[in-house]
Amino acid sequence: MAGDVITIAHGGGGTRMQDLLREIIFPLLGGDTLNTAEDAACLELPPGKLAFTTDSFVVKPIFFSGGDIGKLAVCGTVNDLSMVGARPLYLTLGLILEEGLRLEDLERVLRSIAEWSTVAGVRVVAGDTKVVERGMADGLYVNTAGVGVIPDGRSISISGAVVGDALIVNGYVGDHGVAVLKDRDGFGFQLDVGSDCAPLNSLVEAMLGVGTVHSLRDPTRGGLAAALKEMADASGRAMELVEKDIPVRGEVRAVCEMLGLDAMLVANEGKLLAAVPESDSTAILQAMKSHPLGADSSVIGRVTEGRKGRVSVLTPLGSARLLRMPSGEQLPRIC
Amino acid sequence: MAGDVITIAHGGGGTRMQDLLREIIFPLLGGDTLNTAEDAACLELPPGKLAFTTDSFVVKPIFFSGGDIGKLAVCGTVNDLSMVGARPLYLTLGLILEEGLRLEDLERVLRSIAEWSTVAGVRVVAGDTKVVERGMADGLYVNTAGVGVIPDGRSISISGAVVGDALIVNGYVGDHGVAVLKDRDGFGFQLDVGSDCAPLNSLVEAMLGVGTVHSLRDPTRGGLAAALKEMADASGRAMELVEKDIPVRGEVRAVCEMLGLDAMLVANEGKLLAAVPESDSTAILQAMKSHPLGADSSVIGRVTEGRKGRVSVLTPLGSARLLRMPSGEQLPRIC
Predict the structure, then answer these.
(1) Contact B8 A137 (CB under 8 A)
(2) In sequence order, which residues have a C-beta less than 8 Å from that of residue B103 and are 6 or more positions away?
(3) Which of B80, B184, B281, B294 gets the most CB atoms within 10 Å of its CB?
(4) How far is residue A42's CA from residue B84's CA, in Å, rounded to a whole number?
């Protein structure tokens, strides 16, 4: 393709945009449905309820340890579908490109989208590309929307937690935020932590294969704390956590202490918080530990009676502190 | 809500974002599904194939004669679904907000989204909000994705045109691009033209109520010229147009001549190009003319044998010129 950067004409709906689609986007994302150039993809669905969601991604930088904006976009939407018990099937891709973006960077993002779509078992079936002037999109912004199907009989909801449920997370929290932070300009530490970004649909299927799950949430912006508060608020229950059981890597803990961050508030992109019946918790924990994305799974607390939305944390010293919802994000542009 | 502009904290996943959702976004866009705060909407669909599409919107300015970025976002996605014969049902809404965006501007956009969703008969069922630093999103960018259902028996495709089909447009072309242009800073004309932005699903239903439609395209970026070329290329047919039958307002023609634009290349947001069997064309044209969005409909040409993708235009002087695909957009950031 002539030139090695995105130009305004690439977003104009003419031959330059068709070149971009035919020479770069279609070959990398492939697929018969995308190539037809219909205004909308036409798809057959298996039986069940439709799940439908969207996320936009503005992460900075667009490439970071353990991921990039494309991987995030696939995993984020796959995970949102998975959190309601849906089997993710199809994605749309909306690209807002900045004039001057290097085509090799765009290609790298698209390759990542293709790779992680394959891993997650979903297909990009429709898309849209816009170009804005230099300085107006910080490289690129990516939107993904996704559809999936919830098989009959599944009922997983943010409001589904009941008293007695075990609360489980599938491993170390805070990795994503710290990994993105360390790859920003001006960060001065050496640190061997990558983003946890991953598609969680196969882990959810493994859990549902051995037991009942009442509630799921992926703790992204706002971290595990926001996910816990949202689940407690929506279910009208209280929660009691045991701090020492919440998995946080030593390196992440150290960086957080140094920078005045709270690992409980740091974003994750490959974690889930589950509320499961006590009777099924052993089997589900075992299934999670046997899955590559759940090896470090841990029961971190219980759903209890008590004031709606109250989340208390038992510290190693034996005292209890109340978890508060963060007001904003400690680290902007994290996803 | 405290403060009257968007701040970085509004995108952080914490209480400030929840305030934005609960005090502004949920009340304006309403709906039980959106309010549940599930990670994905869970929906029942009527029988038929699923249609799925997306569009991002970066129009400048965000408010213009006859529309705004919110109306565009609803209509653009509704129209893409309509172009494959689907009945649009549900939308997702992805907002990328710039720090400093006035809340009253955001509210105005959201009210427009709500209003036009009602008009089009669709519901916003899921969404996502991100905030980027000042200067990084020119106010706001909007993504909509949409799903609809294609009733059994419909088969409308960009490749569906056959030799002998009549080509119909539902009214004046070029209004949208010219209307947006005149509302940009520095444009010096008085001009009484508004955007044609409109949801076309009811017009398509009216057409399908009286006849068969082979192919539909909404001529947005790249204008009617790009839509014709895409339809000719995809179907492997040629097309012959009659220039005098292509509806262009006198004011739009005058502005285009003055600025060196070609009205055939200027974007529309409430127009469709249809290829319909000659035998049904009278009934379909009549149905279109009886619809508020089709009063100025016109047969503009025919699908013919001839070289694949060749679109020729018979001028008023009796000569024929070849229509060329534009290379880029004459007017960037038009949608």
Answers:
(1) no
(2) B1, B3, B4, B5, B6, B24
(3) B80
(4) 8
| Cβ separation B42–A150 shorter than 8 A | yes
Q: What is the pTM of this model?
A: 0.96
Chain B partners within 8 Å of A133 (Cβ): 332-333
Nearest chain B alpha carbon to A131 = B333
Contact assignment for A52 to B58 by CB distance below 8 Å: no
Tell me how far CA of residue B142 lies from CA of A54, A189, B60, in angstroms: 12, 36, 12
Q: Do B143 and A50 touch (CB under 8 A)?
A: no
Give the lowest-confidence range in A36-40, A60-64, B80-84, B261-265: A36-40
- Percent of chain B, pLDDT > 70? 99
B-contacting residues in A 175-214 (Cβ below 8 Å):
none
ipTM score assigned to the predicted complex: 0.96
ω into residue A292 within 30 of 0, thus cis?
Answer: no
Q: Is B220 near chain A, with CB under 8 Å?
A: yes
The full set of domains in chain B, from first to last, is: 8-150 (3.30.1330.10), 166-322 (3.90.650.10)
CA distances from B130 to A34, A197, A226, B7, B103 (A): 27, 18, 16, 11, 14
Could you report the per-residue pLDDT of B171-210, keeping only the tens digit for each?
A: 999 999 999 999 987 777 788 999 999 999 999 999 999 9
For B81, the enclosing helix (H) or strand (E) is: helix B69-82
Q: In this structure, what token pair is assigned to residue A254?
A: 């150290």
Chain B contact present for A10, CB below 8 A:
yes
Indicate yes or no: CB of A14 within 8 angstroms of CB of B326.
yes
Touching check for A222 and chain B: CB below 8 Å?
yes
- List B residues 26-85 in contact with A (Cβ-Cβ < 8 A): 36-45, 49-58, 79-81, 83-84
| Partner residue facing A56 (CB), from B9, B94, B267 | B94
Compute the count of residue pairs across chains A and B with CB atoms less than 8 Å apart: 292
- Round to whole Å and give the CA distance between A202 and A154: 16
Which tens digit of pLDDT belongs to each residue from A120-170?
A: 999 999 999 999 999 999 999 999 999 999 999 999 999 999 999 999 999
